[in-house]
Amino acid sequence: MKNINKKESDNNRKIPSGYSKKDTLDRLNWLEEKTGMCFDQTPTNEPEDLKGIIENHVGFLPIPMGIAGPLIINGEYAQGEFTVPVCTLEGTLAISMSRGMYATTLSGGISTQYIKQELSRSPVFVFNSLKESSDFMKWVDTHFVEIKKIAESSTNYGKLLRIDQYPIQNYVVLDMVLDTGNAAGQNMVTLAAKLACDYIQNNTGYNYILESGFNSDKKASARTMIMGRGHSVIAETTLKHSVLKRILGLHLDEVNIFQQIGPTVTNMAGTTGCHLHISNALTAIYIATGQDTACVAENSIGHFQTEPVDEGLKCRLTLPSITVGTVGGGTRLIAQQKNLKLLGCDNGTHSSRKLAEIICASSLALEISLMSAIASGTFTQAHMKYGRK
Question: Is 275 one of the annotated active-site residues of the chain?
Answer without folding.
Answer: no
